[in-house]
Write a structure and sequence with these properties.
Helix 10 (279-288) packs across helix 11. The longest helix has 25 residues, at 2-26. The chain is globular and about 65 Å long. The chain starts with a helix and ends with a helix. It is α/β, with parallel strands linked by helices. The chain has 12 helices and 12 strands. It folds into 2 domains: 37-117 and 266-316, Periplasmic binding protein-like II (D-Maltodextrin-Binding Protein, domain 2, 3-Layer(aba) Sandwich); 119-264, Periplasmic binding protein-like II (D-Maltodextrin-Binding Protein, domain 2). The strands form 2 sheets. Strands 1, 2, 3, 4, 6, 7, 8, 9, 11 and 12 form a 10-stranded mixed beta sheet that branches. Strands 5-10 form a two-stranded parallel sheet.
Length: 317
């Protein structure tokens, strides 16, 4: 009788073990961790040089990790995150109330991390000597109330101003709409060239154009591509309002971004949707860590998660 009871106990334990194995295998375990696996990330093209540099450095340090970066307009990147097509996104804005409601309704959490500051840069042709512009004038050009160079006070230029952006729904134009308080996008007077490099190429060939790009494309003084871009155009200096001294007009570089004196300064964010300790978390930790922030600084942008005391001291000197 004792042996029989012992046998029943062993069988019961085996059954429980098999059952637990079956239950575990029926739930698919995560295939990635903080330093290994493969995920897809969406990023606005405005930040492509920076994101590519971070991706390359991260994968060189973690050989079992593979990041597939999909460069797409900002609103499409957010939509891909909401529809679970990507694990993380790199954008210049926070989620809207309606977008947050989707996460709340689905009981899914997300995290947002500020890691760098750049600026929206305004470009003009190398032959154009009129390189100063104010936010009210820029707003007038965007909404159509100003159209000609003469209305901007340009002394040596005539004809219509052509505003050129990368894409109609990119972070560059979305940021300007929000920053300048333009109520409707239907009246916007902009030409979409297709990408930030194509905006630079268009401005280089058309003296009547003003290009709108992310400063990340022209901020890295050690990058031959960035240097080639910035040498082929003028970067306009921007002031908050009319009537200011010329010293109040600033460009989207270095100390102007660090000291927040450039009127079109913005912050770059990574938004992560990940329910486990996965590769998305690993990449965010790297970008916000010491090495990732050095890459931000090297790109000519401003790190937001590490102090830049030395750089500020050099500027003051």
């Amino acid at each position: 009788m004792e042996n029989t009871m012992r046998n029943y106990f062993v069988l019961a334990m085996l059954a429980c073990g098999l059952s637990s194995c079956f239950l575990f295998s029926s739930k698919e375990a995560p295939k990635d961790g903080p330093a290994q696996g493969e995920i897809v990330i969406a990023a606005d093209e405005s930040f492509q040089p920076l994101v590519q540099a971070e991706e390359t450095a991260f994968e060189n340090n973690y050989h079992f990790a593979k990041l597939t970066i999909r460069y797409t307009p900002e609103n499409e990147a957010v939509a891909d995150l909401l529809n679970e097509k990507v694990r993380s996104i790199v954008v210049s804005r926070e989620l809207t109330t309606k977008e947050k409601e989707i996460f709340t309704r689905e009981k899914v959490s997300y995290r947002s991390f500020r890691f760098a500051a750049d600026g929206v840069a305004l470009l003009t042709n190398i032959a154009n000597q009129d390189t100063l512009i104010t936010l009210p004038v820029l707003k007038g050009l965007l909404d159509g109330s100003l159209t000609n160079w003469s209305s901007l006070g340009a002394k040596n230029k005539k004809g219509e101003v052509v505003l050129v952006v990368d894409k109609a729904n990119s972070s560059n134009i979305k940021f300007l709409i929000d920053r300048l308080g333009i109520p409707s996008t239907q009246s916007l007077r902009v030409f979409a060239a297709g990408s930030n490099p194509k905006v630079i190429a268009y401005v280089k060939e058309h003296p009547n154009a003003i290009g709108i790009i992310g400063s990340n494309w022209i901020s890295d003084g050690d990058n031959p591509t960035s240097l080639g871009f910035i040498r082929s155009v003028h970067v306009m200096s921007v002031a908050e309002k009319e009537g200011l001294d010329k010293t109040k007009y600033t460009q989207p570089f270095g100390y102007n971004l660090a000291l927040k004196t450039y009127p079109l300064r913005r912050e770059i964010k990574m938004i992560l949707k990940e329910s486990h300790l996965g590769l998305g978390t690993g990449f965010v930790n790297y970008v916000c860590g010491e090495m990732g922030q050095l890459i931000v600084l090297k790109a000519g942008l401003i790190p937001l998660t590490r102090p830049i005391t030395i750089r500020t001291y050099q500027i003051n000197q």
